[in-house]
Amino acid sequence: MSRRVSILGCTGSVGKSTLDLMERADPGTYEFVALTAHSSVQELAGMALQYRPEVAVIADADRYEELARLLKGSGVEAAAGPSALVEAASRPVEWTMAAIVGAAGLEPTAAALQQGSIVAIANKECLVCAGDYFMRLAKERGARVLPVDSEHNAIFQSIYPGHDDHIRRIILTASGGPFRDWPREKMATVSREDALAHPVWSMGAKISIDSATLMNKGLEVIEACRLFGLAPDRVDVVVHRQSVIHGLVEYIDGSVLAQLGSPDMRIPIASTLSWPERMETPAEPLDLAAIGQLDFEPPDENRFPALRIAREALIAGEGATAALNAANEIAVAAFLDEKIAFLDIPRLVSECLEALDKQQSLPSRFSGMEAALAVDQSARRLTSRLVNGS
Ligand code: NDP
Ligand code: MG
Question: pLDDT for 167-179, tens place per residue?
Fold first, then answer.
């Protein structure tokens, strides 16, 4: 029997790693239902012709004609625009990969959860923006959330289900990004290319910049609290430049369990695809003797203020984390467009949070998606104005 699957964000780094694993399975193992992208229409059409999903969706509605032309006669339905994305994510499947980048993934990921099946969540921004709401929705609908982010997947693998009260704290590792050894003055001169060149992981542009500012680790602390229902002071971060240990769980008796593996996203993705079983992957086996040494150091919040800003937002609540996420998305896009400098990213995020806090009282908890989207939109508008200097 084929397993019905959808991949939201199939043209991205996580999406392609997912397809790479699926391609290695026996023919007929997977039946593709929806494949979606934002603007990479040629690539999406190529994947649709190869994997033959029921529907291929391009989120950018202006590219519908091109998609329809490329898929003509193939039997694959072409669709476009945000509502088509949600409709496609709602089609019954047994497993969804939620790998859209940014808050654009909120509504499609929620639609996948509504089905009550397995949702592998890579799209950390949706958990940062409205994670408590998402986890409540999953529970109500009987959906199973499996974390894809390597640190969270490591924690998930190191937790005994049903024994949460035995956990003292969890520890997320951070590679430290490309500027881990740079003095702050030098960081003021960082170029787009410097910031995109991650020392360990090969990833999409937005998460690569987040890793360079360490905002990624801040987002991940928030993601961890929401996924595992932990208070902020029970999630720590340690810089571990080899990225061999991905996450650790410390128990009340002092035992610490960790998950190790080569830094290859196909390992955590495979664990969600085969869960609760295991499957083979082409990832390099871990050769500890060749690695020789594992280093650990505390993160430097003076050089990387994003981590502190994210923690403050987490303590303030869901309204603040939704605003943090939106402000960061706008600031990262402005940096990638070379409109602002690298150190402006955390500065603008912090200014946005302060200004929003004065303008409106941000809710500590969202009751639904609309409230999350409203805060997201306000923070986007405000940060865009800050970027443009008005
Ligand atoms: P990419 O930028 O490589 O891919 C993003 C995907 O989302 C693409 O398919 C893209 O389509 C699509 N997309 C982008 N914007 C929109 C939009 N507005 N509406 C609908 N679809 C959109 O990102 P990654 O694969 O690197 O990351 C995906 C998610 O996984 C992120 O949330 C990231 O934080 C998380 N993650 C990624 C890791 C990694 O190793 N890459 C590790 C851990 C977490 P198109 O190609 O057309 O632009
Ligand atoms: Mg991660």
Answer: 999 999 999 999 9
Distance 290 CA to ligand 1 centre (A): 32
The predicted-structure confidence for 94-122, as pLDDT tens digits, reads as follows 999 999 999 999 999 999 999 999 999 99
Q: How far apart are the CA of 114 and the centre of ligand 2, in A?
A: 25
Which residue's alpha carbon is nearest to atom 23 within ligand 1? 204
**Domain ranges, ordered by start, for the chain:** 3-147
Query: Distance, CA 385 to ligand 2 centroid (Å)?
Result: 30
CB-ligand 1 contact for 124 (6 Å cutoff) = yes
C-alpha dihedral, 309 to 207 to 7 to 228, nearest 10°: -40
3-147 belongs to which homologous superfamily? NAD(P)-binding Rossmann-like Domain (3.40.50.720)
Neighbours of 203 (CB within 10 A): 19
**Contact (CB, 8 A) for 113 and 137:** yes
Q: Measured from the CA of 37, which atom of ligand 1 is nearest? A: 11
Instruction: Tell me the best of 109, 128, 207, 271 to mutate to test the pocket of ligand 1, counting ligand atoms within 8 Å of each CB and taking the most.
Output: 207
Distance 151 CA to ligand 2 centre (A): 5
Please answer whether residues 67 and 45 qualify as being in contact, where contact means their C-beta atoms are separated by less than 8 angstroms: yes
Q: Which amino acid is at 225?
A: C
Residue 230: closest CA among 169, 148, 317, 318: 169
**Is this structure's pTM higher than 0.70?**
yes
